[in-house]
């Protein structure tokens, strides 16, 4: 059988160019074009004219972006790729910084990644890849670069000597801290906190994202040292506005992002939310007492509650507490003769507290109970959870390598940048004139500083 001639030592008639070996539709070319359009002034400002010439920061950033998009996180592996992989060679202009240089560049500039992330989100918006009709929010645990055995417990302080029984009950219902706050401190990474990471308790961080429904672009990202997402709703939505110029029309999130405070925020900025209540979810799973407050139906017309036994609780008084704010108290009228009295309350009469803004929870419950609301909320999982599935399963990034919240956040944002760049690669080639100056076509209208857009 005849074979094509095979000679490993064959000479070239003309010097070859590494660009000839990188196809026009290659991910590396998208990263090259996108990075060329970023405003890197803050990065350049960190370099001095004194001393030896440094590797060009734009080149280093392109290499770092590409490494994360293909799942190469080790500085030693990146240095190896610069000598063996044509895409890396193309982005680096065939320069080959060693692993110490790569590691130092990443470590020293992680605090700038948030600005680069924002600029890339704006680029996606300019290209029509973001609609902001609907965004979905979620968080996931990422293991910190710290061992479990290096974690110790310390009681920070005694928050309250005593608390009224009703305050304790409402705190639990609203998802607040317990009476005594206990903080776990890791000796390797003091900023990391103990939380669930892939089902197990480990020192870690909570990576949170907001994802646009049109093409699945991450429009906002945060890294928290708290497992609870409650404090992050407003942060993610305000960052969405900063990054894109406007708020989304509606937001989908799980119960961790709920609570009256967050519902008030959504109303104040005009966003329609689809966020279930933790207690409602507990009711569906049978984990909430049949006499929990959520089973008492509020009648706005008569300003009273109807209990599960069919009796009523009437308005008693209004109180104000620094911790829970202004609230109205309702008391049972027929508790003395009720056969469920002991199961319902340890007091002689059952009392219900209605907080300011509780009507927003009623509205949310009604919205999520509709057929349209159920369908809309179901779309959340496929929209936002695939982001974490892609990061953790496809690109094996379950653990942060850098220590301290600032560096850990920069590393997480690099993961989000990589995800968006892969999305750009996917959709850029669907534009008209696919193979005719595709980079220029893709970036048309984005000339100038993206950070000034």
Could you characterize what this model shows?
- This protein is an alpha+beta fold and about 450 residues long.
- Among the domains are: about 140 residues, no CATH class; about 70 residues, no CATH class.
- About 40% of the residues lie in helices and about 20% in strands.
- It is built from 16 helices and 13 strands.
- Strands 1, 4, 5, 6, 7 and 8 form a 6-stranded mixed β-sheet that branches.
- A hairpin with a 5-residue loop joins β5 and β6.
- α3 crosses α15 and α7 runs parallel beside α15.
- The termini are far apart.
Q: Topology of this structure?
A:
Elements: H1 27-36, H2 41-44, H3 57-69, H4 75-84, H5 86-92, H6 99-109, H7 113-126, E1 134-143, E2 151-157, H8 165-174, E3 181-186, E4 193-197, E5 200-212, E6 218-224, H9 233-244, E7 250-252, H10 260-269, E8 272-274, H11 278-284, E9 297-299, E10 304-306, E11 312-321, E12 325-332, H12 341-344, E13 351-355, H13 358-369, H14 371-394, H15 405-428, H16 438-442
Parallel strand pairs: 1-7, 7-8
Antiparallel strand pairs: 1-5, 2-3, 4-5, 5-6, 9-10, 10-11, 11-12, 12-13
Helix pairs in contact: 1-3, 3-15, 4-5, 4-6, 7-15
């Amino acid at each position: 059988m005849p074979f094509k001639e095979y000679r490993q030592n064959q000479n070239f008639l003309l010097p070859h160019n590494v660009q000839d070996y990188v196809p026009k539709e290659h991910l590396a070319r998208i990263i090259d074009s996108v990075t060329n359009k970023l405003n890197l002034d803050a990065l350049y400002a960190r370099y001095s004219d004194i001393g030896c010439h440094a590797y060009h920061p734009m080149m280093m950033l392109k290499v770092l972006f590409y490494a994360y998009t293909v799942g190469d996180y080790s500085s030693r592996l990146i240095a190896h790729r610069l000598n063996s992989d044509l895409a890396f060679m193309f982005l680096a202009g065939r320069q080959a910084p060693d692993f110490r240089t790569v590691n130092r560049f990443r470590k020293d500039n992680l605090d700038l990644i948030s600005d680069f992330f924002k600029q890339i989100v704006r680029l996606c918006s300019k290209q029509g890849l973001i609609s902001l009709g609907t965004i979905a929010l979620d968080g996931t645990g990422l293991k910190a670069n710290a061992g479990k055995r290096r974690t110790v417990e310390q009681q920070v302080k005694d928050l309250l000597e005593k608390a009224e029984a009703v305050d304790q009950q409402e705190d639990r219902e609203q998802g607040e801290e317990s009476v005594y706050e206990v903080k776990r401190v890791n000796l390797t990474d003091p900023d990391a906190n103990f939380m669930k990471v892939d089902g197990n308790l480990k020192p870690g961080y909570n990576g949170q994202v907001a994802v646009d429904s049109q093409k699945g672009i991450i429009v906002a990202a945060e890294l928290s040292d708290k497992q609870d997402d409650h404090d992050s709703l407003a942060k993610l939505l305000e960052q969405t506005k900063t990054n894109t110029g406007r708020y989304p029309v509606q937001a989908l999130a799980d119960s961790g992002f709920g609570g009256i405070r967050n519902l008030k925020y959504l109303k104040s900025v005009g966003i329609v939310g689809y966020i279930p209540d933790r207690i409602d979810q507990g009711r569906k799973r049978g984990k909430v007492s049949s006499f929990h407050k959520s089973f008492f139906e509020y009648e706005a017309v008569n300003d009273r509650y109807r209990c599960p036994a069919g009796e009523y609780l009437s308005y008693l008084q209004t109180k104000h507490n620094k911790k829970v704010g202004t609230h109205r108290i309702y008391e049972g009228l027929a508790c003395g003769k009720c056969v469920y009295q002991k199961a319902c309350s340890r007091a002689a009469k059952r009392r219900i507290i209605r907080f300011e803004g509780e009507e927003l929870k009623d509205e949310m419950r009604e919205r999520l109970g509709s057929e349209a609301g159920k369908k809309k909320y179901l779309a959340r999982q496929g929209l936002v959870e695939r982001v974490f599935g892609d990061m953790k399963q496809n690109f094996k990034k379950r653990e942060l390598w850098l220590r301290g919240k600032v560096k850990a956040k920069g590393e997480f944002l690099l993961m989000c940048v990589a995800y968006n760049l892969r999305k750009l690669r996917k959709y850029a080639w669907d534009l008209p004139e696919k193979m005719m100056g595709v980079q220029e076509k893709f970036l048309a209208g984005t000339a100038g500083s993206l950070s000034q857009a």
